[in-house]
Amino acid sequence: MERNNFFHITKTVGAMIELNNKTFTCPVDVSLSFFVGKWKILILSHLYHFKHKSYKDIKVNLPGISEKILVQQLKELEGNKLLNREIKSERPLRVEYSLTDFGRSLAPLFEFLSEWGIDYLKKNGIDYIQDQHLYK
């Protein structure tokens, strides 16, 4: 059995990996487990690009997400050591989120996905760089 700072690795069985009571087929499967769900990668990407965000700011930037799902996703990301939750004031309650060092280690992924998306949009007649003020 092996331990690192974040997770408990139980064993590897053939091509399968058991980690934190879950079985994975490969390292990509492990990586994707951090982003399961529609919103996690978007939450992390917003925090990467904007450094710190309040709960309200995150909610406003993710139209369509419910309160319940946002709270759940934030708790899971915090539990996976990808983001920090800091209480800025008690009354009124104001919470701010930011990426941990572990979360910031995903920077190349966010950069790649952003560049790929911008290129895809451009190939389909949308110049996001020129018109990005329209999307804020």
If strands are numbered along the chain, what order do they take across the biggest sheet?
Answer: 1-2-3-4
Structural class: alpha+beta
Count of helical regions: 7
Count of DSSP strands: 7
Describe this structure in words.
The chain folds into two domains: 1-33, no CATH class; 37-135, Orthogonal Bundle (Arc Repressor Mutant, subunit A). Helix content is 46%, strand content 23%. The chain is built from seven helices and seven strands; from the N terminus they run E-E-E-E-H-H-E-H-H-E-E-H-H-H. The strands form two sheets. The protein has a four-stranded antiparallel beta sheet with strand order 1-2-3-4, with helices on one face. The N and C termini lie far apart (47 Å). The mean pLDDT is 83.
